[in-house]
Design brief:
Distance between the termini: 44 Å
Largest sheet: 18 strands, antiparallel
Number of strands: 23
Order of helices and strands: EHHEEEEEEEEEEEEEEEEEEEEEEH
Strand content: over 45%
Number of helices: 3
Radius of gyration: 23 Å
Helix content: under 10%
Shape: globular
Structural class: mainly beta
């Protein structure tokens, strides 16, 4: 449907009016607009600014109309702000975690998202616990400086790596749009892990972003490079050969070289996506930070639940210092994004069918070989929704495993692969 009917291209805009902003400040919208007063109206610009506004995850509907030929009116229907709701996530280590959350998607009307969560494992129930606080925004005091702050408290037995993850994590990520399509990236974090040394992180990088949309991308490319240093080395006074109560897991001292490349192309309702995530970590990496591949966030050919109900649990077989994750995915847009309202709560939803291929490389040192590689095919259904981006129901199949496995995931895999739990 053409949302700009009644606004012919080339009409010189005499005024712009914003309608329906009950909780959002006008400047949040105005900084995303491409059509300007005194310039000819462009339907192509409107489609681009509409995608930018949808990326804010604040509106279920965005339309434009013309009054008296040249007076432009943008109309908005806002998504719910407060979300007291069940909380959940799917991790390759802990499986499905459930709990409670309280989120505000638009604090002070400034497009600041804040959320507190408590989550616990379903198997074993109540034994692995996580407490989290998140706050983020794409702007800081009007500057195009995106920021994301995270506080995470974890008390969970890691049966893949074989240790008790009793830890505290504070993390701040920054994204400064220096030029159109070019951002400078920074990260600083500190982790306190019981029986290990303090683990600080500092990183710098850059990203080229030519995607049409950050959420539910249909076309364009994204390339990111990050260089991060983790740890200060092992300076613990704990000596296990002398003290039987000592459980020293040591400190770390390594660099991480990260490359994240994504490309998308659309033909009619078919969206083709190819992504590659590579992380190479020279230096001293301890066992508790080895990568694991298996599950909806990494490799949909290991882990998961067999269709007959048999569990194929995560194990320590696929652990490594360095990783490469490859995905080639075809999406068919079965239902485009639709606005809806239930009992005064506004939201949107869309449905996509997916099929694809996952490749996994995981190794400890030197160059990877074929013994370090695994491949799998998968298919399923994605439900596109606010806040979580999408809910994924997928079935994966690895030829050497011999039977399909079911996977449930939240967010797009390219997001959860980057920020999955350690």
């Amino acid at each position: 449907m053409d949302s700009s009917i009644g606004c012919p291209d080339g009409t010189v805009i005499s005024s712009i009016r914003l309608e329906g902003l009950e909780h959002t400040k006008p400047r949040v919208v105005e900084r995303e607009l491409l059509n300007r007063v005194g310039e000819p109206f462009s339907a192509e610009k409107f489609e681009a600014e509409k995608r930018r506004l949808q990326d804010l995850d604040l509106f279920t509907e965005i339309t434009v109309s013309c009054e008296q030929s040249s007076n432009l009116t943008y109309s908005f229907k806002e998504i719910f702000r407060w979300i007291p709701s069940p909380a959940g996530k799917e991790t390759d280590r802990d499986g499905l975690m459930i709990g409670l959350a309280l989120a505000n998607l638009n604090v002070l009307g400034e497009d600041i998202r804040a959320e507190v969560q408590y989550r616990t494992s379903t198997d074993p129930f109540l034994e692995n616990n996580e407490y989290a606080f998140y706050v983020s925004s794409p702007y800081l005091f009007g500057l195009p400086l995106g920021w994301n702050f995270e506080f995470l408290r974890t008390d969970s037995y890691d049966d893949i790596h074989g240790y008790q993850d009793d830890s505290w994590l504070v993390d701040l990520d920054l994204d400064y749009e220096m030029l159109p399509h070019l951002s400078l990236l920074g990260t600083v974090a500190g982790r306190v892990l019981k029986d290990a040394d303090f683990l600080p992180e500092f990183g710098l990088g850059f990203a080229f972003d030519f995607r049409d949309s950050k959420l539910d991308t249909r076309k364009g490319i994204y390339y990111e490079y990050m260089l991060t240093h983790v740890g200060l080395g092992d300076d613990s006074d704990c000596d296990m050969s002398v003290d039987k109560n000592c459980k020293d897991m040591g400190g770390e001292n390594y660099w991480e070289l990260l490359t994240d490349a994504r490309a998308y192309w659309t033909l009619s309702r078919f969206v083709t996506g190819a992504t590659a995530l590579a992380r190479y970590r020279p230096g001293d990496v301890k066992f508790y930070d080895y990568y694991y591949h298996g599950g909806p966030n990494t490799f949909r050919g290991r882990g998961g639940s067999a269709l007959g109900g048999k569990e194929d649990g995560a194990d320590s077989v696929r652990l490594g210092v360095h990783e490469v994750l490859l995905t080639l995915e075809e999406r068919f847009v079965l239902m485009e994004r639709h606005a809806a309202s239930v009992m005064g709560v506004n939201f949107f939803y869309g449905v996509q069918l997916v099929a694809g291929f996952d490749g996994s490389l995981l190794w400890d040192s030197g160059r990877p070989g074929w013994d370090d590689y695994e491949g799998a095919v998968y298919g399923g259904l994605h439900l596109v929704i606010p806040a979580l981006d999408r809910i994924r129901f997928e079935v994966g199949y690895r030829p050497d495993r011999g039977e399909p496995a079911f996977y449930f995931g939240l967010f797009d895999k390219v997001t959860s692969s980057r920020w999955r739990s350690r």
